[in-house]
Amino acid sequence: MTEATTAPATPFKDLVFSGVQPTGNLHLGNYLGAITKFVALQQSHDCIYCVVDLHAITVPQDPVQLRNSIREVTAAFIACGIDPTKHIVFNQSQVSEHAELAWVFNCTARLGWLNRMTQFKEKAGKDRENASVGLYAYPALMAADILVYRATHVPVGDDQKQHLELARDIAQKFNNDFAASIAGHGFGDAFFPLPEPLIQGPATRVMSLRDGTKKMSKSDPSDYSRINLNDDADAIAQKVRKAKTDPEALPSEEAGLASRPEADNLVGIFAALSDTDKASVLRQFGGAQFSTFKSALVDLSVEKLGPIGADMKRLMADPAHIDAILVDGSDRARVLAAQTMRSVKDILGFVSRG
Ligand code: TYM
Q1: Domain 223-315 in this protein, CATH class
Q2: Does residue 76's CB lie within 6 angstroms of at least one atom of ligand 1?
Q3: pTM for this entry
Q4: Taking a C-beta distance cutoff of 8 angstroms, is the pair 194, 151 a contact?
Q5: Which run of H or E residues covers position 17?
Q6: Which mutation among 91, 118, 159, 220 tests ligand 1's pocket best, with the greatest number of atoms within 8 A of CB?
Q7: For residue range 267-313, what is the model confidence (pLDDT) as tens digits?
Q8: How far is the CA of 31 from the centre of ligand 1 (A)?
């Protein structure tokens, strides 16, 4: 008999899950930090990509705008190269198991864990008493989104790292709390995988074009702080040209970006858009003035983002087609989620029809 020399294979099948909120325009941060990764992972993994509309209502939403944003994020997914026939694209509210498992996780997660979430503190601001309970409990819903498919890999930008750690803590605690029942139902040592965040590359945290110390975000009041996926070539060019910089030429080595947040950000964006790293961008542009670098960045941005914006527009002209994609994706996602939820109910000890 030969002894096993490799680690035992994980009992979980590799599966990618990620989500994007339908709140306002998608921007370059969403694209480089998340959506480009979604596209690449389709080659190697089964993937589920979700328009997380239940997350959107943690803050007030206008129903007409929300419906439009759900379609717009779906259009962006498709325009960027996600294939909804080979993978699953759907909107969260259509698969009620997300909310159902979130309740279970509300009972698993500890108040102390949620109290540490920096994004809640930022979003609730000073008027915390007036924030919705949903905004506070949001990370438990995010854990449910991933774990209702028992997904193993989650591509996200750097700002979601803490939420992913919480999802792992929740999965671990559920596995521990119900260990005997999990084993008794034939699931071995663990029912949920500990999902692994995929946060890689030169643009995991794209910063505002107006302030290199602030994250690029949908909620920044200045539209010049971000490049939107549906900006036209003129808008892209104007925003890049107006982007804040410092008076120095670009350094030749990455270390030279250390205390220059705006330069670091623009070099990171260039690297991500051209699918290289910061070091090779600096090999090309080290010593150059920003005017030269910005011209090249305008050309590159328009070349990469122009076709996406145009395709989004084309797709948005046919909402029935987008809705059909979401219905089909929801139907397929629901089958998988229902299977997990049935097992969770058995593990918890709920009496059901069997
Ligand atoms: P959301 O909608 O704020 O952002 C969607 C994705 O874009 C990334 N991102 C950025 N990446 C780099 N630089 C930036 N400036 C930037 N801004 C946003 C985010 O990290 C994210 O990957 N809670 C999530 C949505 C969600 C989710 C999930 C994600 C709900 N359930 C389950 C993964 C798995 C959110 O609000 O992302």
Answers
A1: mainly alpha
A2: no
A3: 0.96
A4: no
A5: strand 16-20
A6: 159
A7: 999 999 999 999 999 999 999 999 999 999 999 999 999 999 999 99
A8: 10
